[in-house]
Amino acid sequence: LGDYAKAEPLYKRSLAIREKALGPEHPMVAGGLNNLARLYYSLGEYAKAEPLCKRSLAIREKALGPDHPAVAFSLSNLAALYAGQGEFSKAHSLHVRGQGIDEKLIDQVLGFASEDRQAIFLTTRQGNLERALSLVAMHLKEDLSARKDVLDMWLRRKGVVLETQRRFQEALIYSDEPKAMATFQELARVRTQLSQLTLGGPGKEGPEAHQGKLAELEARKRELEANLSTLSQAYALKKKIERADSTRLAQVLPGNTALLEFVRINTFNFKARGEEEKWLPARYLAFVLHAGKGERVEMIDLGDAGEIDRAIALFKRELGEPRDRQALKAMETSRKIHDLVFEPLKKSLGERKEVFISPDGNLNLIPFEVLRGPDGRFLIEDYTFNYLAAGRDILGFGEIREKGKKVLLMGDPDFDLGAEEKGSTLRKLALVEEKPQEPTKRSSEMRGFSFSRLPGTKREVETIKDLIEEGGADTYTGREALEEVLRQKGASRILHLATHGFFLSDLDLTVFREEDMERGIDVVMAPADAVKGVKLENPLLRSGIALAGANLALRSGEVERSDGVVTAEKILGLRLRGTDMVVLSACETGVGEVKTGEGVYGLRRAFTQAGTKSLVMSMWSVPDKETEELMVEFYKNALSGKMNRSQALRQAALKQMQVVSGRYGHANPFYWGAFVFLGEP
Asked: Which of 3, 86, 143, 527 is the least buried, fewest Cβ under 10 Å from its Cβ?
């Protein structure tokens, strides 16, 4: 209510009760000190707030250990106090220490929590990260060291939920080595114990005994991780990628390229007093990192995220009406997005025309290639863009040594395939009819869905097969385009899927979080939209592709392990390590639920996490004829040996742009610009 005069004596009395009942060194006392300090901070009475913040921090460090989440919150609150006084460098050093604690804790907690709990837990840490980024963006953007620090924080945090899920699934899928499996299971137990002990606090045993146990478990965890890294190439690669920082990324970026790492954050107003808004509207930031120049990290503030997001939504809506008048509107909106998002980056990019892009927020939903500059040229005419789920993925380029065998082409599935026909087809193909081994799910929203045949996709895969050396490709169409083929064939050199893709819009489900004061943990102020946006249904169930028999499965309502409805959740469980490229020649395969800081929950993340090195995907519903033409040209380029795959797709799109201009009298990107390349080119 802003009635601080009434609040102060109540906070003081509460603190006195805690001190008397529990003793002056109890974590609950630290919570009381922190509450009173925040009151003084809100009033701008920093001299009163500072000693309370420092005492709160000291109590928590002593009672809970230096790596407890409550210590991270105390550090963040003390940092906000210093920032409010203009001591920005001092505040930043506290944020760096606090983020180190959060990173360690996230690694522990995500190892055993369920997916919905993981999302909720990350929400409680989001405020700390956004305050750290806000401080540098608003007050230390000229400080190179600070820019590097926050880029490193972001590189390690982005996409961490799916990264963790995949690491644990991978241990189950690639469990051919019994010793590695046993080591992994023990590591999972140790991580669980470590998390529970860290979050639970010292209890009756006292701070010293508690911290001794933590140190013992931490040492065992390090030992097991080292052992597992020698036994499992997959695990070693995951650990290497986790340790990403800007210096190492700059070393491995291909020569004369740059990385654009986008960030969408709510910004914190450190100068807010009383009733003033502490959390300001979201903004987009862009970090620019140049190959071989880890000492040069640039940060550009792109401005209000709402304006950019609205322009992207308008552009996607206008593309849905690809006739002449609407095409002109879409190209005008494309120019607006260019001016908001790309024009401010051109000076930093300099002469570099090959660019790796790791988008965030709604920037995940557009191809940068279709943005149009003031000279009327689309960016595809001057740049080659290579997309990444997270910037740190570059560290994994060239590390997967497994090699897929043949090319696997699937298209024109018979969606109405019945059970009897399916059984005879499986026997003909010598495939095993799979029964559920564990509960399999798909979104309840799919009831009433139906997919229609796509005859153009049959011509597409047959034409592509003719381009590949004889005997180098296996083709499955019609009733043979089964989920069992996808599941049982394993890694292919190239996996081409020409079918329907689907993405269901979000469910309006909200989790409300309560503060937990019983352990002395007071949840730091988090931006409201970060808390209200935690979803209950797994978004990986709401995107996927359709294969043979999908309509029958949807009509019956039964959910089986292999029913033709291949959700992103199922794809996470495929053995795709060694697959050079997956081509999703389908509608909206690059779309999914956008989670700020997590990328797109959907097919793109699922295939990447399943082990494929690269992915070609679409960003909107694509017309059958133009897609067939573009795909054939792409394969001609890619198989020529004269260009890498990212360049092959760009050249195919440029040619298709010319075809479309002649066919329709304009270069509407609806017909040529939907497909993008993600991953290792």
From this structure: 3
